[in-house]
Amino acid sequence: MENTSTLAERLPWEQPWWRPAPGQWATFGYLISIHILSLIGLILYPIPSGSIFVVALSLLLLGGLGTSVCYHRALAHRTAKLNAVVEHILIFFTVFNGSGSPIQWTANHRHHHAQADTIDDVSSPRFGGFWWAHLRWLYQWPQSDPRRWSPDLMGNRYLVWSTLQPMLVGGSLFWGLLVFGWEGFFWIGPIRLMYALHMQCFVNSLLHLSPDAPEHTDSSRNIWWLGPLQLTAWGENWHRNHHQNPNSARFGWTTWQVDMGWYFLMLLEKFRLVKDVKRPRTLRPREKGAHSNARLERRRPRSSRHSTEGRVQNPTA
Ligand SMILES: [Zn+2]
Ligand SMILES: [Zn+2]
What distance in angstroms lies between residue 113's CA and the mean position of ligand 1's atoms? Predict the structure, then answer.
């Protein structure tokens, strides 16, 4: 399972793209299937009906919130503690969006932060290039070991989602057929899943694509135009902000840096459905156009100023 020490020896990106790693055939088959089916669907039904589009879009929006708010901010970085019901609803829609189980996603992501910008960062484009970082690492290298990277999630509360994942992804792919017929199948199934996949994969590929950055320097980027395409995961596109301050639940540092996940967290906080939201005390180094740290500090509610900052352990920081 472990994959920290052998990347430099094996250089897996030099393999042909169509050769999955042992044990990764199911992932490879899934990726190939949704792409072929999406292509067929776009040829047969280039424009979906209104109701089918609304259903597909709603699932994308809920899955985007689940990935960004629950998996990334709450579970992987522990920058917020979600109400258990909200957490599991979000996990459901994230698994349903094809984003994987919470345990495996968290393991992969913490591993990425721990090894970022070295040859052991398996999802980096620095050595393997764009397509390696975008898709190929998902099936041409073993996933990060949850026993090492997400042991805090190994209880039944999260393990159950790993068990349910194949059934949920199968249901996610096919249930549109039962309700809406073939047009529903293609748009609510493979086309939606392919869109969700690529929007998330851009975080590893495009948002780390800095060919001129020397090794061991931060390759992460903020790309404004990716945000609207990521729908409710809009906020993940401020990835440089995030790498510079992974202990903050807030990714957008300025008013104009739209961060849907942060707004959602603020809404949940109003209804007491989240606690221990970690706000940035300092932002470093100061980004061009970023507001001052003092301004961000002023915005923190009084109740949080004695807060959680520095108290909650972040295994990735
Ligand atoms: Zn992160
Ligand atoms: Zn990153």
Answer: 7
Q: How many angstroms separate the Cα of 300 from the Cα of each of 36, 135, 260?
A: 48, 38, 18
| pLDDT tens profile 105-119 | 999 999 999 999 888
The model's pLDDT over 260-297, given as tens digits with 9 standing for 90+, comes to 999 999 999 999 999 999 997 765 554 444 433 333 33
**Joined tokens for residue 34:** 């949704």
**H/E/C letters for each residue in the chain?**
CCCCCCHHHHCHHHCCCCCCCCCCHHHHHHHHHHHHHHHHHHHHCCCCCHHHHHHHHHHHHHHHHHHHHHHHHHHHCCCCEECHHHHHHHHHHHHHCCCCCHHHHHHHHHHHHHHCCCCCCCCCHHHHCHHHHHHHHHHHCCCCCHHHHCHHHCCHHHHHHHHHHHHHHHHHHHHHHHHHHHHHHHHHHHHHHHHHHHHHHHHHCHHHCCCCCCCCCCCCCECCCHHHHCHHHCCCCEHHHHHHCCCCCCCCCCCCCCCHHHHHHHHHHHCCCEECCCCCCCCCCCCCCCCCHHHHHHHCCHHHCCCCCCCCCCCCC
Which of the residues in the chain have pLDDT under 50?
Answer: 1-4, 286-317
Ligand 2 centroid – CA 208 distance (Å): 6
pLDDT in the model for residue 5:
57
209 alpha carbon, closest ligand: 2
Distance 116 CA to ligand 2 centre (A): 7
pLDDT value of residue 280: 77
Q: What is the pTM of this model?
A: 0.87
pLDDT score at 286: 47
The backbone torsions φ and ψ at residue 49, rounded to the nearest 5 degrees and listed phi first, read: -70, 160
Contact 234, 258 (CB under 8 A): yes
Question: Residue 177 Cα, ligand 1 centroid: separation in angstroms?
Answer: 35
pLDDT for 303: 40
